User: Which sequence fits this backbone?
């Protein structure tokens, strides 16, 4: 308080005037900082998502990792604490059966929190909310909590793409008592109570979207609760039906005249029939098949209810604990497809980390850069600039072009293995495709690892020479092995660091509050930490 004379030069001002000015300036400051798009006062936060198995269940690994983060000016480590198979990376007393294999005797969360705090880095404990493993503890002990599709199957009965089995079981967000109040919220509470973490992080805070969209949840609880939520029939006089008098010529215009929507024989219908009605029924007889609107609205309501309840529980004992969320890029679309309308969560979320990954955009790398700026601007608008938004960038997906020839060779080799030896025409076609992909790959490989290029080239020749006619099963397997080894250990420089730097710059054009990178492990595999150190230099 001894600086005012300096602030106002040598002019002597009265104490009252000084306080009036000081209070005036003070009250303007936060608003100016938040409202000014190109504000210089705001320091960009740097964060990274990280997985304990890639760091190691030992103190040396944790220290080495925290040092790496320190060198890259990381402010917050978003550390996986409840994984997608339901496995936990803290020594849970309430749920010891869910502790991750290999982490039973090393409390990872405790160790990384202590080491990070010693370096001035914050810890955000990351929870994969509604996704659980097919063999996870939650589903093993409570199969009745799982989401069900119209056929009565869990998400583990689905396929990803045409053939890939899906190992995850999504749990129902609606049931009470159920997964939310008996399992998930108690887990968050245990961490909040026993670990000095700075924040808690939601992920998978939604319905499944890549397998069976619009197919979940039709468990018994939801089949009963959706009609009740939307009041598709009255609880009083449940079997009485009223004929709507169509006073208005346009059918939908009669919506308010009390149609009782649920069919009279609802209670006799099976799961599939009920689900079909909830998705394809009509609000007004003869109107459009619009009943699924209530299904979508119910899902948005359930996810939002969980987000609110979690915040209420945590803030009761830990009013300063922050809550963050990894979310899809567009809350309007994700509201429709996965029940995640995150622009309505400002009361319960302190920091948004939209996953504005290139994998969620179809075009070229250059078009991604433009869309990343535009999307980040929209995300700030969607939350009305009332909460910080950290632009989420995934390194691996930036390198679609660099990874494409490797994946191409791997896929064609696998197809070639399945061909009968006599199928010369198809063998020749596969061999040509492998050769063409290697021509692309070898250019970059030569530049950064000439010996690897030479060795790989020899394997390629053994498979593609003479239109692939000489390739033995052993040759094909050798090449397949080489490709998978190469993909996990490409030479430094193979992934052009400029792409990561340009993406960060593109996000910065929108002036987000921070940048969060997915993920620490991938940065190591891609040998991109030096690039990140450059990008995050202060
Ligand atoms: Zn359900």
Assistant:
């Amino acid at each position: 308080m001894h600086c005012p004379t300096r602030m106002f030069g040598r002019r002597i001002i009265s104490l009252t005037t000084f306080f009036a000015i000081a209070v005036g300036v003070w009250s303007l400051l936060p608003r100016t900082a938040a409202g000014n798009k190109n504000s210089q006062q705001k320091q960009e936060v740097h964060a990274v998502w990280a997985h304990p198995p890639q760091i190691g269940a030992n103190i040396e690994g944790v220290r080495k990792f925290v040092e790496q983060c320190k060198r890259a000016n990381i402010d917050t480590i978003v550390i996986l604490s409840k994984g997608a198979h339901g496995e936990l990376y803290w020594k849970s007393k309430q749920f010891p059966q869910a502790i991750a294999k290999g982490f039973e005797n090393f409390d990872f969360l405790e160790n990384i929190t202590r080491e990070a705090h010693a370096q001035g880095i914050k810890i955000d404990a990351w929870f994969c909310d509604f996704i659980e493993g097919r063999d996870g503890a939650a589903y093993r002990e409570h199969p009745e909590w799982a989401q069900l599709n119209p056929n009565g199957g869990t998400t583990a009965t689905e396929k990803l793409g045409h053939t890939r089995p899906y190992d995850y079981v999504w749990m129902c967000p609606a049931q009470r008592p159920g997964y939310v109040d008996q399992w998930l919220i108690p887990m968050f509470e245990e961490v909040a109570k026993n670990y000095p973490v700075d924040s808690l992080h939601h992920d998978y805070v939604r319905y499944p979207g890549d397998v069976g969209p619009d197919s979940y949840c039709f468990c018994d609880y939801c089949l009963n609760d959706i009609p009740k939520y939307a009041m598709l029939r009255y609880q009083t006089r449940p079997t009485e039906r009223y004929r709507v008098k169509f006073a208005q010529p346009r059918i939908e215009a009669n919506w308010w005249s009390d149609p009782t929507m649920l069919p009279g024989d609802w209670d006799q219908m099976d799961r599939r029939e009920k689900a079909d009605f909830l998705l394809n029924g009509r609000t007004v007889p003869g109107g459009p098949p619009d009943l699924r609107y209530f299904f979508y609205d119910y899902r948005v309501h359930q996810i939002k209810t969980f987000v609110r309840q979690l915040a209420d529980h945590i803030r009761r004992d830990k009013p300063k604990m922050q809550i963050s969320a990894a979310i899809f890029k567009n809350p309007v679309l994700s509201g429709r497809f996965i029940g995640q309308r995150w622009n309505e969560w400002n009361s319960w979320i302190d920091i948004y980390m939209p996953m504005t990954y290139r994998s969620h955009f179809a075009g070229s790398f250059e078009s991604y850069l433009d869309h990343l700026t535009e999307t980040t601007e929209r995300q700030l608008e969607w939350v009305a600039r009332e909460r910080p938004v950290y632009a989420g960038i995934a390194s691996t997906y930036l390198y679609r072009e660099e990874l494409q020839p490797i994946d191409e060779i791997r896929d064609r080799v696998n197809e070639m293995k399945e061909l009968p030896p006599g199928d010369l025409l198809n063998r020749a076609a596969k061999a040509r495709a492998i050769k063409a992909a290697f021509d692309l790959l070898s250019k970059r490989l030569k530049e950064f690892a000439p010996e690897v290029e030479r060795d790989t080239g020899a394997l390629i020749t053994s498979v593609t020479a003479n239109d692939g006619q000489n390739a033995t099963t052993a040759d094909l397997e050798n090449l397949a092995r080489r490709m998978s080894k190469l993909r996990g250990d490409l030479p430094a420089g193979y992934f052009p660091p400029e792409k990561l730097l340009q993406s960060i710059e593109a996000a910065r054009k929108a002036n987000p509050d921070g940048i969060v990178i997915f993920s620490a492990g991938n940065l190591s595999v891609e040998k991109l930490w030096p690039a990140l150190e450059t990008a995050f230099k202060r």
